[in-house]
Design a protein that fits this description.
alpha/beta; 37% helix; seven-stranded mixed sheet; 2 domains; four-stranded antiparallel sheet
């Protein structure tokens, strides 16, 4: 829980520094439909469309932050209560993380807290391959979380291994890459040169597993605020 303690401490500091403790400072959090979250992409194999997870969106003073989660629902609460919330499951962590993103976006501390739409995930994946090639050369990549376009694009240029938590994906072949059980994560981290992991690891409480001694790129809008606070490398080319 050390990471969440750091995040909570900084979040509370931001609330107090900006005098946001009053009773009328509330956050409205709700799950988005697939179309609201990702638009109408040509490819229909994204987890937001096919899977059991949804994008939670927090609204704070007409500013939005998002977090990807498998536990979702509506929630409205005072900002100070969210900051002090017991983070005992993915639903509560999704509320907390999306609220951190919304507030930090409102305060001008971060950008790119809204998921890209339509065919932008393909553009994002192409740019990611270019980014990795420029910064790391030709590394072996351990990817955590099945983002289909990233697997499709990265698999053409790099040696990659991919794990995913969705049992429907484990053991399947995606673009020539077999999707592995998360139990392979530690083995893959030993094997790889860099790890490319989904930002939803900050919601499902697995992120600490990957912050070892290998370079880590965390993709997606979920991690935006936490990455800023923790000094992590966040890649999200097309988000707004």
């Amino acid at each position: 829980m050390e990471i969440y303690n750091i995040l909570r401490k900084r979040f509370l500091e931001l609330i107090k520094e900006n005098r946001l403790e009053s009773d009328d400072v509330v956050v409205l959090t709700k799950p988005l439909t697939p179309e609201e979250a990702i638009g109408n992409p040509e490819d229909k194999d994204y987890p937001l469309i096919t899977g059991r997870e949804r994008m939670m969106q927090a609204e704070f003073r007409n500013t939005f932050g998002q977090a990807y989660t498998d536990m979702y629902g509506n929630y409205t609460g005072k900002l100070i209560d969210i900051a002090n919330m017991e983070l005992k499951n993915n639903f509560r962590r999704a509320i907390f993380i999306s609220s951190v993103n919304a507030v930090m976006r409102y305060l001008g501390l971060i950008e790119k807290t809204i998921h890209c739409k339509d065919n932008e995930p393909r553009i994002c994946s192409t740019k990611l391959a270019e980014y990795i090639s420029t910064k790391y050369g030709h590394p072996k990549i351990a990817m955590v979380g099945l983002q289909p376009r990233m697997v499709e694009v990265l698999g053409k240029s790099f040696d990659i291994r991919v794990t995913d938590m969705d049992s429907a994906n484990i053991g399947t072949l995606k673009f020539g890459v077999q999707i592995q059980d998360p139990q392979k994560n530690l083995e893959n981290l030993e094997w790889c040169d860099i790890a490319v992991i989904t930002g939803s690891t900050i919601v499902n409480d697995t992120i600490s597993t990957f912050l070892k001694n290998k370079p880590v790129i965390i993709y997606g809008v979920t991690i935006a605020g936490a990455a800023k606070i923790l000094g992590l490398e966040n890649y999200c080319y097309c988000a707004v």
